[in-house]
Amino acid sequence: MSLVAAARRELRPTVVLAVPMIVGQVSQMLMGVTDSAMIGHAGTVPLAASAFAGNIFNIFYVMGIGLMLPVAVFVARARGARASGEAAEYLRHGCLLATGFGLAELLLMGVLATQLHRFGQPPEVVAAVGPYFLLCAASIVPVLLQLALRQFAEAMGHPWVPMLITLGAVALNALLNWILIYGHWGAPAWGLTGAGLATLIARICATTALWLWIRRDPRLGLAGPAVPSGEAPPPRPAWSASRLREMLGVGLPAAGMLLFEATAFSVSGLMVGWLGAVPLAAHQIAITCASLTFMVPLGLSMAAGMRLSHAVGAGERHRFRPLGLSALGAGLACMLAFMTLFWVAGRPLAAAFTADPAVIGMAAALLAVAAVFQLADGVQVISAALLRSLLDVRVPVAITFLAYWGLALPLGYGLGIAGPWGAAGIWAGIAGGLGFAAVFLPLRFLRLTRSR
């Protein structure tokens, strides 16, 4: 079978698996979109404050995402090797990592909350952000547990219920925002703080629902080793040091890769904040839109990574390259559509978040820059997931470090802060870093999967 025909054969199963994952990722992202849209109508300063808090929280969040990625990799491998008991153990250890790491991050964010004035943001933004940031920080443990549970269910081939639970959490968050931000149904109008409380409650409810479903669904309950009727299950240790080391061997480099990218975006957001509240509010609108479209290749990358991990567990090496190329092709097609959307409808998109004409104009300009890097963003995230499924993490870490800290941030500072381009220059730096990663990560995958 030719490479093209093999890639076409792999495309449909990848897309079928990816669809509920994409919807789930978009639903998760819609919490932020809902917050931005509803906070934006409460004023420019609250919107800028939510952007500031989000920039810092996302650094901790993406580190947790990276640490949870081994759950999907190793559960899918265990499923491919028909080792269901191993899959259950990887879930258990993933939840242990999520709880321990989440509590450590919560402590760090609690300390950081006393130092927000040191980030050089507008005084009115710093004055408003404290309670919202602490409420976001409190949600880190439930949201990391939710990630581990979702990745287990998806890697076991059951992505639809997690998707529906996440959609329900989005609806709950929107309702609570409407009540707590604006003071409906007799509640006080807490504004930005109400949005933080709504997000915390919605995330706790989603995690609880997902945990209860996994515990009670017989298809997933059978992931553990079978026990004869009437017999007590054999004792098992609370945790395995070797299994934790195995997961951390993938999770820590993955967290590093995501951290380099996330901190590049977060530091870029801080640099935009140096330019004033209006540029920061425009940045928040544009980054919300770009992050929303990014959920599509992210979902594709998760599906492709799980299918590739399954192929590794089953020993089907001949599928590696066709599977990866089909996912990259699907990602490029989707991001081309989003690139066109940002070019054509940047101003109407910005106007959906705020009525401030200055913010709308600047956000539309930033969306034009975002259109340029849509293709690169899709290629790099899918390539990174494919390499992670092959347990290739060291070289990708070096590539992403060079892309974001070696290129994106210095270029953005030179063009936007030292140079005349302002916020658009900072975003141009990000585009350059994404382009670098989008070249060298897929080249690495092609090198590792070439015929021998």
Briefly say what this structure is:
It is built from 15 helices and no strands. With 452 residues, it is mainly α.
Alpha plus pi helix count: 15
What separation lies between the terminal Cα atoms? 17 Å
Q: Care to count the β-strands?
A: 0
Low-confidence stretches: 222-230
Strand content: under 5%
Output mean pLDDT.
86
Shape assignment: globular
Largest sheet: number of strands, sense, barrel closure:
none
What fraction, in percent, of the residue positions are helical?
over 70%
Supply the helix-strand structural class: mainly alpha
Radius of gyration: 22 Å
Would you kindly provide a written description of the structure presented here, covering whatever features stand out?
With 452 residues, this protein is an all-alpha fold. The chain has one domain. 83% of the residues lie in helices and 0% in strands. It has 15 helices and no strands. Helix 13 packs parallel to helix 15. The longest helix is centred in the first third of the chain and has 38 residues, at 3-40. It is globular and about 55 Å long.
